[in-house]
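Each record in this resource describes a single protein on a pair of labelled lines. With that in mind, the following record should read easily:

===
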Amino acid sequence: MNLIAELLVAALASLQDSPTVTLDQSAPVETHLAEIQRATGGKIKVHLDEPGKAVTVKVKDASFFQALDAVCRAHGGVTYFGRTFAGPDGAVDLRPEPWVEYPVQYSGPFRLTVSEMVRVDQQSSVGSRAWTRVMLLVFGPPWIGVSEESGAKADFQVLEAKDAEGRDVLPPANDADPEERVRVAAYPDMANYESSNSARKALRLRAFDIDRGLSILKGKVVLKVAEAGDVSLAPKAGESVAGDSGTLKIDTVSEHSKSIDGTTWRIQLTFSPKDPKRKLRSLVEDGVGDGNGTWRELRLPKQGLTFEAVIGPLPQLPTALIFRVRKGERSVEAPFEFRNLTLKKG
């Protein structure tokens, strides 16, 4: 492949990752959300106290998160922040809670947010020291997994950081993390580390006045995201499917329970990777589909290559189960530049 062809492929991949949407009307929230889903392909689950409430939204060529934030902001009483905001099917869950503004940067299809700034002044037997931690999160859209659970890796790189007076607050490159006798920086509730499509980093900077904030925080998040493809398996013992990363096989299928709603089955599977060093969670995504658009959480084990899918209750076992198997990985950059960065108290 020549250089021009490689650039065209890269440009096409970038466009596919960054679909946009234009909203310019007063309409029910559900109408705006339906258009976001149609234009971007991003899934949104809607749970509203006031169905049909009309809001005016005007955005042009906006990314998934830009448009979604505009709808939430216009409504004022809905949000997708929380302990989880993307389930095993990748859908963003919109629910009735007050919308809270955080400093935000949109970088292609990604959303970068600063959720905390904490200054620590420590006096202990090891001496006196002061520093600041800034919590930075990157949210991935429904079609790009960025969490460790999705097999992705995130490298947060700060290139420039200055306080309100313009003083450099980046620590020296060889400066070791302080020995903390008491950890005071709490993880934010807006994105649970293990079950949301997000990655985060507590950035350590030199001490500065957090009430005045930073005049600039600039850098990038380099994401290595896993490529995945759907594979179909008939729920029968001995059925298997081979792919680029290995073979997925059904070991056993058994009825677990019956109720008025139908039968629940337990299906045991084993993944045999081509690379014996790879772990299960880097090979299979944490969800199983029944072929009708419904996805269920798998709760993959941290150790071993055997896992279980619980299907039901249903009137009958689906003719095929869908699993998302990861193949290779690719590198994606999400640059950010926050100016006059402060957080509101409370």
Remarks:
- The first helix runs from residue 3 to 17.
- Residues 1-15 have pLDDT under 50 and may be disordered.
- The longest strand covers residues 321-341.
- The chain is about 10% helix and 45% strand.
